[in-house]
Amino acid sequence: MHRSFNLAAAPYFDDFPFAVPRADASSVHRTFKKATRLLGWKRQGEKEKGGWRRKFVALGALFNISRLRRRTHLVVESKPGRREKAVTVIDHAVAANAITKPMVDSLRGQLSFAQSQLFGRLGGSVFRALDGLERTRPAGLKARLASLRTQLGAFFELPPRRVRCGRERRPVIIMTDGAAEGAHFEEVGVGALMFDPVSASAEFFGGRLDAATVRRWRVAGQDQVIEQGVAWRVVLSRLAWGDVLKHRTCIHFIDNEGVRLGFLRQVASHPVTAELQERFWMAEAALGCHTWLERVDSGSNIADAPSRLDFELMLRLGLRQIGVPIMR
After folding, report:
1. Phi, psi for residue 14 in degrees, rounded to 5
2. Span 168-321: which CATH code?
3. Would you say the pTM of this structure is higher than 0.90?
4. Running DSSP on this structure, what letter comes out for residue 119?
5. How far apart are alpha carbons 33 and 29 in whole angstroms?
6. How far apart are the first and last CA of the chain?
7. 21 and 27 in contact (C-beta within 8 Å)?
8. Disulfide engineering: 115 pairs with which of 13, 93, 123, 303, CB 3.0-4.6 Å?
9. What is the DSSP string of 163-232?
10. Burial status of residue 220 (CB atoms within 10 A of its CB: 0-12, 13-18, 19 or more)
11. By the 8 A CB rule, do 193 and 319 touch?
12. What percent of the chain has pLDDT over 70?
């Protein structure tokens, strides 16, 4: 289609969406029908409809391109009925207090497609909840299914994704760092700074994690909680600067490569780290923010100072100090 007819198409299995100017829509539709007939392809009746539509389903998602004429953005959201299908499977399992492997596989397949087309890096907690679900004893199954239903509802109720197509504003810059000090690394500090080149605003915060939270994070005699602390700071930055990040791009610098890759791959062996990764990507989706997570060398990370409660450099550079956000 691309080479033979110079058409902008994105075929995926049996989906053939085209992007064309309104004046060319009828001609493109006729060309596609004739081309498929020459190839001997069978179409399911007249399922495909010619003409220009600003809101349509393709590739398992619902697209709204009504704002493209103003060169602003297109809107992508979940295909209608996808949430209902997944919830129906769970409701049947709750009613029978049993779930089979084919039912779990069906859920996994539906959610895998939704994740690849819409959720992006969200969904790690749901896939973990599906692991071994069919082997759960009846006494604990209802609780697991209820938790899974709640998680699904949270994903599908997120606002639609906005993909900017016009001139993009310069990205927000965020740097986070932390420190674990004390005889038993019980003093966990957090530092973060934000610079917005559009408004020329620059802010920072610095503080310490309370001792009760540090104890809760320690698993099976674990002493260090550096990984959890780094992930915690990344999430706190979304709480602190959510208004700035709404529908913006962002470059977020982290000086811990393991944590950075964990966020990108949604891989975590520690339950707290997994929870924080999920909270970060949920916040990203809710804000409509598009973040590039980048590595920065520890010696070049100026967020180190506020994480040790040293604010002199930040204030000398003219950054405004804000309070440490409270994460519940």
Report:
1. -105, 15
2. 3.30.420.10
3. no
4. I
5. 6
6. 52
7. no
8. 123
9. EE-SPPPPPEEEEEEEEEESTTS-EEEEEEEEEETTTTEEEEEEEE--HHHHHHH--TT----HHHHHHH
10. exposed
11. yes
12. 88
Summarised one tens digit per residue, pLDDT across range 10-52 is: 776 767 777 777 778 788 888 888 888 888 887 665 555 545 6
Q: Which amino acid, residue 69?
A: R
Q: Which two tokens stand for residue 230?
A: 């780094």
Which residue, chain included where needed, has tokens 């100090």? 321
HEC states along 53-89?
CCEEEECCEEEECCCHHHCCEEEEEECCCHHHHHHHH
The tally of CA atoms less than 13 A away on the side-chain side of residue 198 is 11
Phi and psi torsions of 306, nearest 5°: -65, -25
Q: Is 19 left (phi over 0), alpha (psi -120 to 50) or beta?
A: beta
> What's the CA gap between 221 and 157, in Å, rounded?
39
Domain chopping of the chain, boundaries: 2-76, 82-108+115-162, 168-321
Place of tokens 């920065």: 296
Residue whose C-alpha is closest to residue 22's, from 51, 1, 2, 46:
51
CA 295 to CA 199: how far, in whole Å?
25
| Cβ pair 191, 204 in contact under 8 A | yes
Distance CA 8, CA 290 (A): 25
Q: Per-residue pLDDT tens for 140-170? A: 888 888 888 887 777 777 788 888 776 778 9
Q: Give the tokens for residue 251.
A: 């470059």
